[in-house]
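Shipment paperwork, digital attachment
Item: protein structure file
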Amino acid sequence: MKRLLTFFICFGILIFWSSCRNDFEFSPSTGNLEFARDTVYLDTVFTNIGSSTYNLKVYNRSDEDITIPTIQLENGVNSFYRMNVDGSTGDVGSATEGKFFENVELLANDSLFIFIETTIDISTQPTLENQFLYTDRILFDSGNNQQDVDLVTLVKDAVFIFPSRDENTGIVETLTFDVDGDGMDDETTLQGRFLEPEELTFTNEKPYVIYGYAGVNNGQTLTMEAGTRVNFHADSGIIVTNGGTLNINGELSNDPEALENEVILEGDRLEPLFEDVPGQWGTIWLFDGSTNNTINYTTIKNATIGVLSEGNQNEPTDKLTINNTQIYNSSSFGILGRATSIAAENVVINNSGQSSFAGTLGGKYNFTHCTIANYWNNSFRQFPALLLNDFVLDENGNAVTNALTEANFNNCIVYGNDNPEFLLENEGDVFNFKFTNCLLRFNNENLEGSGNYDFDDIVFYEGNVFNQDPDFEDPFENLMRIGEDSEANEIGSPDFIAQVPNDILGEARTSPPDTGAYESTIFEED
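Attachment content:
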């Protein structure tokens, strides 16, 4: 009984003490809030495309629980910014939602998060060279207690290319073209549309933002002039169909970092967080029947497949001629060829989820002074930097073959962070390849082999160097220049200098030349 009486007495004291506490009594803010930063910079966005979400942390360093009477955007309901304060968007459904908050409670020595986004219509603002700086402020409280944090966003104008959408059904327009070569158009599931005649020349005046696949139809040529910038939304790209042509006409830039004259193809997220994220968009798809495609001085980055070239291996001119071009961060393949013909000079490919270059189902390939590397996390890729084969498996698992009429790699580097970094697979009777004066990575320490890997056979391998350090500047960051200690220095054959006299940066090649797309250099120390 005594124990029971003691329990009730203690319980009563606890209840009385709790009722006297003022933990939940909030005092108005006195203007002494602290902020993680005084300005929130929302990275560059395109007009009418939503930004990423940014955050601001707000601190109450005092020993008092406080109420912030108001948190609001200075431009009010007309602001292009919107906020979420600790999970709340304010008065849902009203004009002030995301713009205005009242009586926000903040405990002593605690903090809250404000999340900020923006979608800005550039047409409502004065512009300078197709861009402007949009600003606003978050105001905390008013009068003598008012504090503020600035918001800043750079907004770019752009040319938008997108398929139509049926307002009643919501169905997005898809491409229709001859897929199987029977002369009849076939419906596809590729969202997109064919470019109109007035859209077939891309210039450097504004960036281009593409939603879905921009199609180049029979008899059309899409030309991209020097300095063009093309940004692709997710699951977007360019498809050049039967009878169409793509000409990307970039030029050598004076500034190797700004690349002012190169054509750059990448995703439409401009924030630094997305700068090197693979797989943000689809591919440049050169469909079977497209002809005379050229790519020069171009950077292609963050695609699923940088360039997909299909068919036409026996045409008198190469289906694709690609020169002085960099392809980085492809989630699948840098260049994927299928029974096609590709001529490449001064091409650099690195960091691909599968192979940086794959010539599959036979074809015809000639690569001179190219750097084909792969420093992708090798725990997550199945294939080496370079893959050649002459077959595809049908539904029954049987190999269907097609001739690899030629695959010549002259003065090239084929390297990476796995070993081996090239794979040759043949099932048919015609499988012609040759590596001449290349720096190659292959895991047979004694360089002994048979069949496709008989390294002593000069017919297939002539003047090559194996398993030696190319001394790349920083391949994990796609800096693929070679240093003065590179084993690629002066091992190239002079026979190809006349064909490719300058490297990808315009530097004259020495004799004998260095292999790969770059002449060696002395790296500057940080």
